[in-house]
Amino acid sequence: MGQIDIISEHILRILSHEGRISNLELAERVGLSPSACLRRVQDMERRGVITGYRAVTDPAQLGIGFIAYVTVGLSRHTKAAQEDFERLMRAAPQVRECHNVTGTVEYLLRVEARDLAAYKEFHTDYLGAFPYLDRLTTLVVMGSPKDERA
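Request: output the structure for the sequence above.
Response:
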């Protein structure tokens, strides 16, 4: 993959915040002709630099009243145990993000639920049922003064 120059970086910054911006406006803001801008965007899509576009949603409008980050430590440190856990997380609609991390635990999850009772059910009946679970720590999100996830 080729290097990303300063103009392409600028395009990516704008698209990450305004994915539905018109090519004409994007071109104006980065100082390119519309055709040159479109070629750059299409090239970044083709090369896999841009992998998709998403709608940013308001959790409260979707009935999500509880958000937490959960650290997960496994009792077995095998590839099979990790694959089983990752498969379980992919199947859980409450798990919006699952990251394999370094440190004292293996995973960091972002979990969204209707309310505390729904999270407790997920925590106890779903996560707690995983056979190689060693420890869980739940960090409840109280507010998000900065959130740039797209």
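The helical segments are 6-17, 23-30, 34-46, 79-90, 116-127.
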